[in-house]
Amino acid sequence: MVRVPRRHNQGFTLLETMAGILFFAVAFSALMDSYNQGFFAGQYLDRMAIGINLAQEKIDELRRGTYASVAAGTTSDIPVTGFAQFRRRTTVTLVPANPNSTYKVINVVVSWFSKGSTSTAWGSNYQDFSLTTYLADY
Known about the structure:
By secondary structure, the chain is α+β, with helices and mostly antiparallel strands. It contains one helix and five strands, in the order αβββββ. It is about 35% helix and about 30% strand. The longest helix is centred in the first third of the chain and has 51 residues, at about 15-65.
């Protein structure tokens, strides 16, 4: 019987190489998906923080005036200067609904376009934040 000397194969087979590439592609895809989700979550939090500050700014503006200067009623969705994606609506209500009431409820709703929205129409493409406070005549 003749023995054939074994060759020492060094390197990887084509199947091992393809399996390695597949493994790294799946891992990279999962990593990029989590990065993408984190990016959009960061954008949402940024817009939410801006919305909160815009609502608080409007409430502070109304509270700086006198009780009589804050008229009951609702403003329509007004674009906020310097913030093109945001709209602000203010509602002032006498509580109870009585002209001699001693306090008013101020509700400010700030709306903004949600992620991925390319439309400029206000419909289902927006999110909003509401802030409510009371103003007393004392």
